[in-house]
Design a protein that fits this description.
heterodimer, A: 289 residues, two-stranded antiparallel sheet, B: 9-stranded mixed sheet, 16 strands, globular
Chain lengths: 289, 392
């Protein structure tokens, strides 16, 4: 019984992590209709920035996390203004080729600067180890991930649903021409959203170093996972990818625990079954645009 | 494809110093060694260690042997067998090398094997560790290790030292399966019981569910083999899940506590018992000098890959000495058979029948020495042959 709960807890933590990593992709893909396969590169950038700050410059871990967010967002906005902007109107194939190229460049660049071996972020002692809660083993670090990601999800949902920026974004997505006719600066809204998605990826990268391992191949290794989250969740809202992440996280952990021989296949099997059942994802609208 | 002529600086320095007063070497006076290593990609640390060790050896011993100048041509294969094959072809056909050497992973060593046979030149394997490699060409000689060597020994050691129930966690690929099977064979023959067997995917992001399964199986120890690089992740999650506090030990072949990465793994790794061919803490004077020189030149500790590279280039030098500079491939391989020498890892030799390495396997425990983590050797199994072959 307790091991079921421990697995559930691990699965939720893993799912939350996937969500923070992938929700930026859901935003660019679903809301902006742009295929950004380089999303993982921003996550990796955040991870490495956090690692350099903590390990080499002695920053406290919790101070480095926001900076991982800010700097990934800054890199995101710089690239959006200089490169991505020109590809919004192009075909999806062009976008895929461009962003895949960008991903390979990021892999090579990080390999060159930081070397190819796996890096770890030195964690404060308070985040290490596990404690028992009524016999259920709770990892401190995973608990922190759940708290941070949970708060972020609520905040995101609030911003999208309740704020003026949120309504502008939704308007810009639904009909960019009408939105700009109403005086909404559509490119600015998109640029800001893009940067925010990159920032989230950066934060996710910093958080995931401990659990997923951080090396220059991160963007390639996890691209599949991000895409699964977005396809299964549907890319027209935040709740879709969120529930998809949780489902996949829990499914993956439980699959590896209960049927270790089949473990690696569980996540893909789930994806195929869900997509046969609902081709647009769990929460997708049919033909959104 | 990268091609770098490393050592140009060494060569220049040697020339300035006028070592042995050699006249500038003419083309026919040089011996070319084609070094194929993963210098980029996930296995790059293997390539770097071997390259460093060879550099160090040539700085120490000079770049000339038996009147010939040794020239190293380094090619990067990123541990992809197709690239290994192309690199080997280019080296043999265009550069006319006299040796091919290196090979970070088993598939790379196998890809080059038919070329070595065809060109009749020695292939010196300095890293890859699957048993079958040396059987694929009569020109293959190995200075690294085989997984059978360390895995059988740790199996024997475990049953004799009160470990009765073991859960295994190994990566699902050829070396992982080798390690698992050889361990199981000796461990169960001695009366041990494998209570849980998990193979993790090679690209494994998260060990958590597998480790939880290990914990619930309540074994005396976990036998672990994961490729270099994942060892750190494994040990961290092992500690996070409190398996160390539950009294479950980690045992395995020494790859999981490779000196290259050991010091960054944190205190969770303390007490891990592994069987392996080399520890940077090996107490011989020769090793102390080797470690000091390596640290001075490259700023970090040598691991077992570095020692394999160091011994590999030594073997090439010795073979050339024995043939008096004759570069006929068949003669060189003959000269390598039965070579015996003192390496930083201890006494080693090349088995004249299998052309594989015979070496001591040490049982080591991770301890803190001067504030750093080291594998401290406490038992020795002498002159271990590759059991993967002798059993056949």
């Amino acid at each position: 019984m307790t091991s079921i709960l421990t697995n559930l807890f691990d699965g939720v933590a893993y799912g939350m992590l996937l969500f923070v990593l992938a929700c930026g992709l859901a935003v660019t893909l679903g809301l902006m209709n742009f295929v950004n396969l380089a999303h993982g590169a921003f996550a990796m950038a955040g991870g490495y920035i956090c690692m350099v700050l903590v390990n080499r410059m002695g920053w406290p871990f919790f101070a480095a996390l926001p900076l991982a967010f800010v700097s990934s967002a800054a890199i995101g906005i710089a690239l959006e203004r200089t490169l991505y902007r020109h590809l919004y109107a192009r075909s999806h194939l062009d976008q895929v080729l461009f962003t895949i190229g960008l991903t390979f460049m990021s892999v090579a660049a990080v390999d060159y600067i930081q070397g190819s071996s796996r890096v770890f972020i030195n964690l404060p002692a308070a985040l290490q180890g596990q404690f028992d809660l009524f016999g259920v083993g709770i990892g401190r670090y995973r608990l922190m991930i759940i708290v941070i990601c949970g708060l972020l999800t609520i905040a995101l949902q609030m911003v999208l649903a309740k704020t003026r920026f949120g309504s502008r974004l939704r308007a810009a997505v639904d009909d960019p021409r009408a939105a700009s006719g109403l005086g909404i600066n559509v490119p600015q809204v998109f640029a800001f959203t893009f940067a925010f998605g990159c920032g989230l990826a950066g934060l996710g990268g910093a958080l995931s170093a401990e659990i997923l391992g951080l090396d220059p191949y991160f963007p390639l290794k996890f691209m599949i996972y991000f895409l699964i989250v977005v396809t299964v969740g549907g890319s027209s809202s935040i709740t879709g990818p969120f529930l998809a992440s949780l489902l996949l996280g829990i499914g993956d952990v439980a699959g590896k625990y209960y049927v270790p021989k089949m473990g690696p296949f569980v996540i893909y099997t789930m994806m195929i079954v869900i997509l046969i059942w609902r081709p647009n994802g769990l929460f997708g609208r049919t033909a959104a645009r | 494809m990268f091609e770098r002529r490393i050592f140009s600086r060494t060569v220049a320095a040697a020339a300035i110093a006028g070592v042995a007063g050699l006249a500038p070497a003419k083309a026919e006076d040089s011996v070319k060694v084609g070094l194929i290593l993963p210098m980029t990609g996930g296995q790059a640390s293997t390539g770097k260690q071997i390259e460093n060790a060879i550099k160090l050896y040539m700085q120490q011993k000079g770049d000339a042997v038996a009147g010939k100048k040794i020239e190293i041509i380094l090619k990067d294969d990123a541990a992809i067998p197709d690239k290994t094959k192309t690199a080997a072809q280019e080296l043999i056909v265009n550069d006319k090398v006299n040796f091919i050497a290196g090979f970070g992973v088993t598939p790379a060593a196998l890809a080059a094997a038919p070329l070595a046979t065809q060109a009749k030149i020695p292939e010196v394997v300095m890293a890859a560790g699957t048993s079958i490699i040396t059987e694929r060409s009569p020109y293959i000689v190995r200075t690294s290790f085989t997984l059978a060597q360390s895995s059988t020994i740790i199996g024997d050691w475990a049953v004799k030292n009160g470990i009765k129930k073991v859960a295994t966690l190994t990566s699902d690929y050829a070396p992982g399966n080798d390690a698992l099977n050889f361990f199981k064979q000796n461990f169960t023959a001695g009366g041990g019981e494998v209570v849980e067997e998990v193979k993790t995917p090679l690209q494994n992001p998260d060990f958590a569910p597998f480790l939880q399964r290990m914990k619930d199986a309540k074994p005396d120890a976990i036998f672990v083999f994961v490729p270099a690089g994942q060892g750190g992740n494994f040990m961290k999650q092992y500690a996070e899940r409190g398996l160390d506090k539950a009294g479950i030990k980690v045992i395995g072949p020494g790859d999981v506590t490779d000196d290259d990465l050991l010091n960054n793994m944190g205190d969770a790794v303390l007490g891990t018992v592994t069987a392996h061919l080399y520890s940077a803490a090996h107490p011989s004077q020769m090793n102390k000098d080797f470690v000091a020189a390596y640290k001075k030149a490259f700023g970090n500790r040598p691991g077992f890959m570095a020692v394999s590279g160091y011994d590999g280039i030594h073997l090439i030098y010795e073979a050339l000495k024995k043939t008096n500079g004759d570069t006929d491939g068949t003669k060189l391989v003959e000269a390598m058979k039965g070579q015996k020498w003192e390496s930083p890892r201890g006494p080693i030799s090349i088995d004249p029948e299998t052309r594989d390495i015979v070496q001591n396997i040490y049982i080591r425990k991770v301890e803190k020495v001067d504030g750093e983590l080291y594998n401290v050797e406490f038992a020795t199994f002498e002159a271990v042959k590759d059991l993967g072959k002798t059993k056949k």
